[in-house]
Amino acid sequence: MDKRYKPMTAIEQLRKRQEILETINQNPDWPFYKVARYIRTELHLTLNEMAKITKIAPQTLQKMEQPNSNPTLESMMKLLSTFGLKIVIRY
């Protein structure tokens, strides 16, 4: 947990995750880097903590959060599936 914030209880974490999922679902036009950064910052996680949860290297996560990033589909799916999200392709 980012030390700038008070740790959340389990119930607060669950509510926060639900809010995050709702916000992301309401904004399907967000680019991937914005979604990745939003999840981590809203849950008050450091890159190392997010890496432990997602099993993705901190450097890879940091790159994923950059506007000019080009993550692999596998990395994107790994991050999103950890939080119960999927990639949807629309035409």
TrEMBL record:
Checking CDD domains in the record gives: HTH_XRE
- Spans traversing the lipid bilayer: none
Q: Which PROSITE patterns match?
A: HTH_CROC1
Question: What are the protein's GO molecular function terms?
Answer: DNA binding
Q: Which Gene3D superfamilies match?
A: lambda repressor-like DNA-binding domains
Q: Which residues form a coiled coil?
A: none
Which Pfam families does UniProt cross-reference here?
HTH_3
Q: Where is the HTH cro/C1-type domain?
A: 37-90
InterPro entries, alphabetized = Cro/C1-type_HTH, Lambda_DNA-bd_dom_sf
Its protein name is: HTH cro/C1-type domain-containing protein
